[in-house]
Amino acid sequence: MANFSFADTNYGLAEASARRRARQSNIQNQLGLADLARRTERTTRDVTKAYRQAASPQITGFTQRGLGRSGIFQRAMKDFVGAQQQRLGDIAAEQQAGQTKLELERQAAAQDLQDYLDQLQLTRQGNILSDAQMIRSMSPLMGML
Q: Residue 110's closest CA among 33, 26, 17, 14?
């Protein structure tokens, strides 16, 4: 005779465990986003500080040689500022890529949870059907019609 139960609590435990893992994954994802924001802010601040510190010697180098109003100076300053803006743009793009990666991971974890819950539900329904068929097959033996 097959081993069956009408009140199998393993489904509830499995679901609770899966939901707990999903919550932990979500918390890790939120921590990852917060860490990414802190790193981006720190990097932006460091780049801005470095360019600010480099600007004065750059300008002084041209003005000491009497080139403070020259086209060479203007071009050098344009390149200098352009490089800073490019670096800040790269930092913003890296942050966006990191956020996108974390969002995709969050969505994948949510989908994994739903897939697991769906599979658990199908297994449970299959077991219920199997139990019902077993009861039905035993009904003539027990005098039930």
A: 26
